[in-house]
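Sample pair:
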Amino acid sequence: MNNTFARDDDSELNDNDPDSEIRFELTDNAGRWFDTGAELEDNRSIAVATPGVRVKFSGDSNTVHTRTSLVYPTGAAGMPFNTEPRKGGDDVTLTTPGLYIFVCSIHPYMFGAVIVDDPATAGLDLGSSLSMITGESFSSSSDLATRLLRTFFIATNPANWQNYASSTPWRVTYPNMDVHVDGSTVNLANALNARYGNDLTLEALSKPAIPAVGEVWVATQFETTAGKSKPGTVSAIDGGNWQVTRKVALPSIDMNNPHNLWADKDQNVIYATQWFDSKLAVYDRQTGALIRNVSVGESPAHVMTLTDNDRIHITNNGDSRTDSVMELAPLATEVLRRINIGRGTPHGHWMSHDGKHMVTPNVISGDTTQYNFRTNVIEAIVPVSGEFSHPVAVGMLPNAGKYYVANMFDNTITAVDMSTHTVIKHINLLENYDPLSGAASGPVGAWPIQTPVSPDGKNMVTANALSGTITIIDTRPGLATTDAAVKMLPCDPGCHGVQYGAKQGGGYYAYVSSKFSNRLLVVDPDPNADGDPSDASIVGSVGLFASEATLRDDAITGNPGMGGQGILPIPLVYNGWVQNLPASWSDQLTEAQRHPIQ
């Protein structure tokens, strides 16, 4: 056993005193969001201690965070532990031996872990049974438990991210330590390598055979540049040749973790939320030049416009107040008002095609709000799943009759009727998954995130972060397969963002990004154009790292093209937005793309 984890000398476990205190500093830095300041085998987000340890959370992040016990030993004293989103410090004392994984509910890939070890047992104690904050319990040797551990070690060490700019096989480095699980002692690295493999040859990048219309912009949120202290760029891809043409870092404002993107009706201006800050960046699409940097509130997550007046709406994901959606004038020239949605901490909202409705997933309260812009009232607040289910993103049918809410930690998607404000169906994305063995008998999606509906309303593509899969759901009405997952495709670690764009000659591509990878997947949800999405396939992949020809406003220094999150295809082709395109863009589309609902 590597003596970094030797228990006969507690000073080697952590630079903090493990018998009394562990300190996590919460930061904006990619991979080291929960930073102990002490490196254990290239990882600064895990610590080992003995029962009674006090865990203190502090930090110098530009925005608020929660301190939430995502995973803990079943029955552990004082669990679950959860705080409101805030800056400053909190602490918790851990007395029950086992594995504790903490997360920020606002930024749910920020991980920190503590192993509380009983010195009387051989190996470091993970606990025989672990529980999720949602209430689910599972064996510490199950596929679900080891998949969570693997995800933790990938997320918290940038050296473990998939790098498609390198020809070196992908290797995930795990701590070389003996752990006590289910009454036996195993080497953690050996067990994870045996279950998931290692030194894997990455697939070669391959351009789609059919070009796309326009461009694809991706928030490469973890890429670092020389002129900034904070991470994040936005990367532009030419849909004609699939080359990365521009990197926008905006060093003059130290753009901080750009997360989600949208455009004005003319497709000339791009809006980028800065999720680890309180600002919306506005820049020129053609030149990448900054137009303005607007204060909007804590942890702005998603941004969209209304189709009828081009006003901008931003969800303040870190704001616990009920008026947590900001409305800005077109081109973000001024903040007009705060909108009361009856809940705080909204994330990935969606707007209706007619400019009438907005629906928000409310992360901490476990529900969704339907807001009417015509009457300026809340029409409904609908519970979508259990406590701590973490509703994170919404997709909507193009005629606004129904919308879908991805519940990340609950592994479900909830379909809601917009007329009756009732839940139509809970789509269980783990229905075909055995959490003990990991066997899958059909499509599986663990930790669903972005889940838009296609512009023609026939399918929905969902990115699933924990399973590293893409699920395709049939949204056509009146079928046996309506609102069922009909296909599963492979994705990269931290599979996250999805948006649809126009394919040249007709049809659509769904673009999928991943946090812990630097490639963009191109999915054709209906390759033979028969409306049935069960034959959806990945038709290409594009590296998000720069070439010598890539224009940039700052020198790239690290994490090249990593952190793929929000996606913005230009032109916007969703129903309601596509009809407002200027002729220069509209003329490039087919008649069916210009009028997606026939």
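Helices lie at 143-155, 188-196, 583-586, 591-594.
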